[in-house]
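Let's inspect one such protein example.
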Amino acid sequence: MKRLLLILLVAAAVLTIGCPKAPVATRVFTDIPPQEAFNLIEDNEGNPDFVILDVRTPGEFAQGHIENAINIDYNSEIFREELNNLDKDKAYLVYCASGSRSKGAVAIMQELGFMTAYNMQGGISQWQQDGLPVTE
């Protein structure tokens, strides 16, 4: 009986040593300037796992936004719920008018278990000052 137990322990040790470990997922939450955000958008063109998220009001959004952005109003009573319904494994570029609401949104996303969210510093105001494109 002791011999069988010893054989089982040795077999378990050999199997454990021989098995590769699962990769540890890295979470990314960082601030980036508009030009870096623009490059990120270009690098992810056509990537369904990359989302541009505008957290301004619908009125602000209608006045001009980054192409392909989706709008979820940071000031909405159901903002957190709407965020929680998004796919947490996708990468998000988040922006607002100046960078304050988007910074708050990224903090909430981190709390909710999202994997990757970039806050665009200076918001769409800085984006436009840098001469980057906006669509209506």
In short: The helical segments are 2-18, 34-43, 58-62, 79-84, 100-112, 123-129. The chain has a mean pLDDT of 89. The longest strand covers residues 28-32. The domain at 26-129 is CATH 3.40.250.10 (Oxidized Rhodanese; domain 1).
